[in-house]
From TrEMBL:
SUPFAM superfamilies: Cgl1923-like. It holds the Pfam family PAC2. It comes from uncultured marine group II/III euryarchaeote KM3_200_E08. This is Archaeal enzymes of ATP-grasp superfamily. Signal peptide: none annotated. It comes from the Archaea.
Length: 266
């Protein structure tokens, strides 16, 4: 019997009271841009990752160094949450396969509980229209929408303080949907912020502008990420370029090869 996913991080990592920010693949590469921005801006250090036989047998390479497909970063920027004096970032450019969504969500939520983290924030995005991973039934037809989901009253208050309106109705799929559902079942404080994006998963353009809107939302939560709007967008566009270069290397075989993973974001 195959064991579930395992979180393996540096033994000296102290996650007590940390804000965990989770960035899994999203429409328009929004969460990836946010993750790369936070690593750069907050000078976060790689501290470990997630291991499982069914994760893609690849590593990412950045500046000549290999990176696991699902990795943990840590740092101690100034944070405005009551219990947050450090950040732990979970980043991945690899689409989580459906059969791993629940085991991975359980593993991450168990780890957060065991380590005594302060709160968990999921970064994601959506595109209006039929056939998307997230079906958002909001009445805003613009492309400037930011929406939030919270598992507890406390997370609702945090989102309100950040100026993020709650999603009233919708269906959220993938690892974000599973983690939100499981966190409410467990009574764990988890929130998600989703930006409307014109991009797509499995093609289309990275959406630096949508990522910049999320980063601006985080400004009140983590003062160290503050930048004026235009420089912030320029920085997000620079990271977009880096992600394009990483995506240029096909880390997963094509869909017609018989491998169920398909393309990197498909």
């Amino acid at each position: 019997m195959v064991e579930g996913p395992r979180v393996e991080v540096d033994a000296e990592l102290n996650a007590s009271g940390a804000l965990v920010v989770s960035c899994f693949p999203s429409i328009g590469f929004v969460s990836s841009i946010v993750a790369h921005y936070l690593v750069d801006k907050l000078e976060l250090e790689l501290v470990g990752g997630v291991r499982h036989p069914k994760l893609p047998p690849v590593c990412l390479v950045q500046e000549g160094k290999p990176l696991p497909p699902m990795r943990f970063y840590s740092g101690e920027p100034v944070c405005n949450m009551e219990r947050c004096d450090k950040i732990i970032l979970i980043a991945s450019e690899i689409q989580v396969t459906p059969e791993l969504n629940l085991p991975l969500a359980d593993t991450l939520l168990d780890w957060c509980k065991e380590e005594g983290v302060g709160a968990t924030l999921l970064i994601d995005s959506y595109a209006q229209g039929i056939g998307q991973q997230h079906s958002i039934f909001d009445d805003d037809q613009t492309n400037e929408t930011i929406l939030g989901i919270g598992s507890t009253d406390a997370s609702h208050k945090t989102l309100k303080d950040l100026g993020v309106p709650l999603l009233k109705q919708g269906v959220v799929g993938g690892i974000t949907g599973v983690m939100m559902g499981e966190s409410r079942r467990r009574g764990v404080d988890v929130m998600a912020i989703l930006a409307e994006s014109e991009g797509s998963i499995g093609g289309g353009l990275p959406d630096a502008r949508a990522a910049a809107r999320i980063i601006e939302c985080l400004d009140d939560l983590i003062p160290a990420v503050h930048l004026d709007p235009e420089p912030l967008l320029e920085e997000a566009q620079r990271i977009e370029g880096e992600i394009r270069e990483m995506m240029a290397v096909h880390l997963n075989p094509p869909a017609d090869s018989g491998d169920s993973l398909g393309s990197m974001y498909g």
